[in-house]
Design goal:
The complex is a heterodimer of chains A (about 150) and B (about 190). Chain A is about 70% helix and about 0% strand. Chain A has five helices and no strands. In chain A, helix 1 packs across helix 2. The longest helix of chain A is centred in the middle third of the chain and has 48 residues. Chain B contains nine helices and no strands. Chain B starts with a helix and ends in an 8-residue tail after the last helix. With about 190 residues, chain B is mostly helical. Chain B is elongated, with a radius of gyration of 19 Å. Chain B: Belongs to the sigma-70 factor family. ECF subfamily.
Chain lengths: ~150, ~190
């Protein structure tokens, strides 16, 4: 604040203050402006202008929209957590079922992949185990870095 | 603060903190007028005022658990709105008050005369326009104090709670601003808009 005006006021100003307050009280009470006191009538006009609603207003649906926005913001973290957990469960189930299928039925179809270098590598069960280990390691690092998504 | 309004405040605050359906919307509806009057009068820019009102209620929602019922909820929310508007003006380097007047500047009281036609003034749209322009031209803090006192019908202690100004300072702002408006009304001072 760069300016701090002083109160109480000298006598002339005190009379002026009294007229201001009287005009405000009369305006609020809805009394008709009286003849003969120009000071009071001026302040009645001032009080009347100051009590007028502002030209611009907030939109009528301001409260509803803001409440909806707050509700959405509050609901968002829970939704995100649920989605994240479901995704982790799904990926985990797919990895486990893939490993189980390879272990149970791999003997029948893995040799058929033994064509060329890539095929030869894919035909080795330990390559699949290595890939699973790397995948789990990557996932666990992600969980450690983002504990809020797995809580 | 009377007991009835304290209980109403407590019920509303508890409902919002509990997340009761519709409670926050009711809180916003109850106090959006107050916030709008404070912020709009401070910043005078409708778009900015709308955004700052939104920011006010988001802050209220975020900090409501810190409200300790030491003042009326109205004053507490008004205080949040005022401080947000104040920070906005400070960021934009807009002066909050008029510069201190020098001793040589005559009092507006000396500028008042007797030849002002009040009969004509009542009901004159041009006079009303001049008054509203004069209100707009007041410094932000004076505009806001006047609006809280006249439009919101807040008491001086309530205004002190909202603005953090001393009661004497508030009365002085009211006095000077209304005297200035009277002087403008009676045609002795130009309105710089």
């Amino acid at each position: 604040m760069n300016h701090d005006p002083r109160f109480p006021l000298p006598d002339d100003d005190a009379r002026e203050w009294s007229a201001q307050e009287r005009a405000l009280a009369e305006e609020r009470a809805g009394l008709a402006p009286q003849e003969g006191d120009p000071q009071l009538r001026s302040y009645r006009l001032v009080a009347h202008a100051l009590a007028q609603p502002l030209d611009e207003q907030l939109p009528p649906d301001f409260a509803r929209r803001l409440a909806q926005q707050v509700e959405r913001a509050a609901a968002r973290p829970a939704d995100t957590r649920l989605e994240g957990n479901l995704l982790v469960l799904l990926v985990g189930a797919m990895v486990l079922s893939g490993l189980a299928a390879t272990l149970i039925y791999g003997a029948q179809w893995l040799p058929s992949l033994d064509q060329g270098t890539a095929g030869a590598l894919l035909a080795k069960p330990w390559v699949w185990a290595l890939a699973a280990c790397l995948g789990l390691s990557r996932l666990s690092r992600h969980w450690l870095q983002h504990p809020d998504q797995t809580a | 603060m009377d007991e009835r309004s304290t209980n109403l405040d407590r019920e509303l605050v508890d409902a919002v903190l509990r997340g009761a359906p519709g409670a926050f919307e009711r809180l916003v509806r109850d106090y959006q007028g107050l916030c709008w009057h404070i912020i709009h009068r401070m910043v005078r820019h409708p778009e900015d005022a709308r955004e700052l009102c939104q920011e006010t209620f988001l802050r209220v929602h975020q900090c409501l658990h810190q409200y300790r019922y030491e003042s009326a909820l109205k004053s507490w929310i008004g205080q949040v709105a005022y401080s947000i508007a104040l920070r906005h003006l400070q960021r934009k380097r807009i002066p909050l008050l008029e510069p201190a007047a020098d001793g040589d500047v005559p009092s507006p009281l000396e500028n008042l005369g007797d030849d002002f036609d009040l009969e004509q003034a009542f009901g004159d749209a041009q006079v009303a326009r001049r008054l509203h322009d004069a209100i707009d031209a007041l410094p932000p803090v004076q505009r806001t104090v006047l609006t809280l006192y006249h439009l919101e019908e807040a008491s001086i202690p309530e205004i002190a709670m909202i603005t953090g100004l001393a009661s004497g300072t508030i009365k002085s702002h009211l006095f000077r601003a209304r005297l200035r408006l009277r002087t403008v009304l009676e045609g002795r001072l130009g309105v710089a808009v």
